[in-house]
Amino acid sequence: MAQKDKKKAGLISTDKTVADNRRANFDYAIEDKFEAGIMLVGTEVKSLRHGQCMLAESHVGEKDGALHLLNAHIPEYQQASQLMQHDPRRPRKLLLKKKEIGKLMGAISRDGYTIVPIKLYFDKKGLAKLEVGLAKGKKMHDKRQDKKDKDWARDKARIMRDR
After folding, report:
1. Residue 151 lies in a domain
2. What is the tally of structural domains in the chain?
3. Is residue 149 part of a domain?
4. Secondary structure of the chain: what % helix, strand, coil (to 5)?
5. Which of 5, 54, 93, 163 is the one with CA 20 to 30 A from 64?
6. In sequence order, what DSSP letters do the residues of 16-83 get, joined into one string?
7. The domain spanning residue 103 has which CATH number?
8. What does the alpha-carbon distance between residue 58 and residue 141 come to, in Å, rounded to a whole number?
9. Which domain holds residue 122?
10. 74 falls within a domain
11. Neighbours of 52 (CB within 10 A)
């Protein structure tokens, strides 16, 4: 199968992941995922292209009727002049459809849900996208059960492989 055919079939991922929030799956039960565009300035895009970003302590919040990515750290681009630099922890506006924003805002206002950033990546067109999830916080016993299930799956795979 040629390289182009593999890309068409979806066997090769053309998305370039910049940052992954692995704590999100551990701390939250993610029920629904959305892909959102993100408004960035030039030096932020350059830093992201170098793979520099941290989503670990970030969250999504409402500000002026729109959703913003808060507390995400995108470091300054070293090759740019000081006049063109951005604030590393500034709020960044998320670009979603009105219907999606309404669904997310309704869920977090009445049901005790939260919006968690999961992954920041560049899509096929080269645009920066943020995958956000509508999530509910896990209790400690849920986290323990998930860890037990994960350990058992790993042990089971090891046993089957050794047969």
Report:
1. no
2. 1
3. no
4. 35, 30, 35
5. 54
6. EEEEE-THHHHHEEEEEEEEEEE---HHHHHHHHTT--B-TT-EEEEETTEEEEES-B-PPPTTS-GG
7. 2.40.280.10
8. 24
9. 15-138
10. yes
11. 18
pTM: 0.71
Q: Is 113 exposed, middle or buried (0-12, 13-18, 19+ CB in 10 A)?
A: buried
- Angle 6-124-58 (CA atoms, 0-180°, nearest 5)? 120
Q: Which position has the token pair 């892909």?
A: 35
Contacts of 137 (CB under 8 A, 6+ apart): 27, 28, 29, 114
CA distance 39 to 93: 6
Using CA atoms, how far apart are residues 36 and 118, in angstroms rounded to an integer?
A: 11
In a domain, 47, yes or no: yes
Model confidence at 157, pLDDT cuts 50, 70, 90, reads very high
**The amino acid at 66:** A
pLDDT at 141 over 50: yes
